[in-house]
């Protein structure tokens, strides 16, 4: 089920049954001469589309332009980078609208710069915007002092559960630390090329590896769909358990 192709009846059921609403957090970023600019986004989208074949979720439109950063290449490379404060303000509006609409089980799934689940600028922008929007929504709907009111006397009992407002929006990686350790993880190398090849074969052109030489792309020559299929399998097992 896709949000942009849904109607009010479907959205009402998503709200009532707390069906997960999933947003892919994407980038447009240089990945060497052999990987498409949408690499990180395509991996997230490909996995979530496969997840939708296994369990009922509502896929919201992907957020493509983001704080990609110029860590890999400069502004002439084709990377599109949005400054963090601008991006966070944009996300805040999206999350506020979703909360106002009554959505209470939102997941943002990210592949970009999430090695070992470390918190890098793009991920932090999502997390900060989610917490700010949740706090603002609670103040708007329940007034200041909402947390200290008797209505929230069971706050600590509900931490981490569906009634915990700070669990309404969750930001997670496509691959947990455990999955990364089990399969491998890199940028435009053997592992990222493999999982991208498994999901979108046309997004990788290994015969172009020699166009430009980078230390981080050398291992891409060893990429294969067999490796990628195993990465997809383990990632889906993790996502199926995490997105509930």
Task: Output the keywords.
244 residues, alpha/beta, Rossmann fold, four-stranded parallel β-sheet, 7 helices
Could you characterize what this model shows?
The chain has 244 residues and is an alpha/beta fold. It has one domain (3-178, 234-242): Rossmann fold, CATH 3.40.50.10310. It has seven helices and four strands, in the order αβαβαβαβααα. The chain has helices at residues 8-17, 39-52, 84-101, 121-142, 177-183, 190-199, 225-242; strands at 21-25, 58-59, 106-110, 169-173. A four-stranded parallel sheet has the order 2-1-3-4, sandwiched between helices. Helix 4 links the parallel strand 3 (106-110) and strand 4 (169-173). Helix 2 crosses helix 7 (225-242), helix 3 crosses helix 4 and helix 6 packs across helix 7. The longest helix has 22 residues, at 121-142. It is globular and about 65 Å long. It starts with 7 loop residues before the first helix and ends with a helix.
């Amino acid at each position: 089920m896709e949000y942009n192709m849904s109607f009010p009846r479907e959205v009402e059921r998503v709200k009532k049954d707390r069906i997960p609403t999933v947003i892919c957090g994407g980038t447009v970023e240089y990945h060497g001469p052999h990987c498409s600019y949408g690499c990180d986004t395509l991996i997230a989208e490909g996995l979530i589309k496969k997840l939708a074949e296994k369990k009922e979720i509502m896929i919201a439109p992907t957020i493509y332009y983001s704080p990609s950063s110029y860590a890999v290449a400069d502004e002439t490379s084709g990377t599109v980078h949005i400054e963090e404060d601008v991006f966070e303000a944009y996300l805040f509006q999206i999350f506020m609208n979703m909360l106002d609409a009554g959505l209470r089980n939102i997941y943002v799934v990210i592949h970009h710069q999430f090695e070992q689940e470390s918190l890098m600028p793009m991920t932090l922008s999502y997390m900060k915007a989610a917490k700010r929007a949740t706090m603002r929504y609670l103040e708007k709907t329940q007034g200041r002092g909402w947390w200290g009111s008797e209505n929230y006397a069971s706050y600590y009992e509900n931490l981490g559960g569906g009634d915990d407002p700070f669990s309404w929006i969750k930001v997670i990686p496509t691959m947990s630390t455990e999955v990364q350790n089990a399969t491998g993880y890199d940028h435009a190398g053997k592992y990222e090329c493999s999982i991208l090849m498994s999901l979108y074969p046309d997004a990788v052109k290994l015969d172009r590896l020699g166009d430009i030489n980078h230390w981080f792309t050398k291992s891409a020559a060893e990429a294969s769909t067999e490796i990628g299929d195993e990465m997809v399998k383990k990632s889906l097992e993790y996502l199926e358990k995490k997105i509930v």
